Amino acid sequence: MLEVIGTDAAGVAGLAPSSLVLLRRARLVLAPARLLADLAPWWQQEQAAGRIPAGAEGPELLASDRPELIHGPLEQALAAGRSAVLLASGDPLWFGIGRLLLQHFSPDQLRFQPAPSSLQLAFARLGRPWQDASWISLHGRDPQPLAAALQKRPAALAVLTDPGRGGAEEVRRMLRASGLEAAYAVWLCERLGHPQERVQRLAPTAPLPADLDPLHLVLLIAEPPPPPDPATLPLFGLPDGIFLQHADRPGLMTKREVRIQLLADLNLPAAGLLWDIGAGVGSIGLEALRLRPQLQLWAVEARGGSAALIRANAERLGVQPQTVLEGRAPAVFSQLPDPDRVLLGGGGSDRAAILQALLPRLRPGGVVVIPLATLEALAELRPLLERAGLAVTVAQHQSWRGAPLAAGTRLAPLNPVLVLRGERP
Predict the structure, then answer these.
(1) Mean pLDDT along residues 246-259
(2) Would you state the torsion angle of the CA atoms of residues 50, 51, 56, 59, taken in this order, to the nearest 10 degrees?
(3) Is the model's pLDDT at 342 over the cut of 70?
(4) Which pLDDT score is estimated for 161?
(5) From CA 408, how far away is CA 22, in angstroms rounded?
(6) Are strands 156-160 and 133-137 parallel, antiparallel or unpaired?
(7) Which side of the chain, N or C, has fewer Cβ within a 10 Å radius?
């Protein structure tokens, strides 16, 4: 039986009494190099304290940093009946050596005794429940999965960093590239479980500690971004992290690059009336008001609590929508005056019925813009615009964002978007 015992950053000093008993009896001990250095002094201390017989020979020590080199010695020890202990970090079955061991040994040859994982310890230090947390490992991996995870705007994201590929700074660069610096608190957690552990919140512009320990992880905790000064914001193309989000669907908003294109396709008049159907958090309609302050915005969103959220975002941006309605289209259309511009961003399977209901209301010279994700939706909706006599254009837009890759930069793709546009003569 190979005893696989998890440790925290305190190493041997942090082991439970039952694990120490196994370690004292072991004839072969495998551990990362950082822990091996502690074993010889520990053995001498145990002998001095009488917990190990005086003169007893210490176990054979073997570094486990290269797992492919330990299989032979382990097989020999198990075949010879020698007691063996492998010290691992945290929970060996969570991004640990346990998976590799199970590829070479049967489960009945292994007994796992996990320590609290670094994730558990990190959230414990912050005093924050973590059942809603996501996690991702960047050890030896391309950072693209981190960019994809950030697009979903998780409530909490733990990142197991790779010090050899940028470490914590790589995480901050990716956060900056995603436009979400204002939406997350960045916590740096070092040497968790060690007497000299350190947990600190990093300001966006603060440098990393000069003595940053390689044994660290980063926690990204979503929080409402601080109210911006509307006068200092860009005229359009606001960062995604500026907007308050729905807590249960935090990534459900139109990304900056697509928002810019939709605003251009709407060809906003200096004055007039804009319907924003499926307004979400209000990002497109509210940006339209920053471009055209005399425009009247009528925003419609079916999700409960959306009206308060859109109004809060409007206050942050220094604009005022005419009306925000919580309700389902097209049932609420009777409450809206005829529009000059329509953005149809929601509706799902009801989108065709919504489009058919709004087209008779569109004023002469009016424009309707519809962002779509699938070719099937395009095939369904385009004929409706053409039969109504609108001039129709179709475009597909694909954007990439620069993301760190080792010492360089790669382009991380965003989802492509089809834009269906109709203009009434």
Answers:
(1) 81
(2) -150
(3) yes
(4) 86
(5) 47
(6) parallel
(7) C
pLDDT of residue 68: 87
Report the alpha-carbon distance of residue 213 to residue 191 in Å, rounded. Answer: 7
Q: Is the pLDDT of residue 174 over 80?
A: yes
Q: Whole-angstrom Cα distance, residue 270 to residue 351? A: 28
Residue 423: pLDDT over 90: yes
Mean model confidence pLDDT for the chain: 90
Long-range contacts of 140-148 (CB under 8 A, 24+ apart): 140/165, 142/405, 142/410, 143/170, 143/174, 143/403, 143/404, 143/405, 144/403, 144/410, 144/412, 146/171, 146/174, 147/174, 147/177, 147/178, 147/401, 147/403, 147/412, 148/412
Q: Cα–Cα distance between 165 and 108 in angstroms, integer?
A: 37
- Model pLDDT, residue 278: 93
Helices (H) then strands (E): counts for the chain: 12, 19
Say which residue the tokens 């254009």 belong to.
393
The angle at the Cα of 19, spanning 17 to 25, to the nearest 5 degrees, equals 105
Distance of CA 358 to the CA centre of its chain: 37
pLDDT at 404 over 90: no
| CA-based nearest residue to 140, from 164, 124, 104 | 164
Spatial separation of the C-alpha atoms in residues 295 and 342, rounded to whole Å: 12
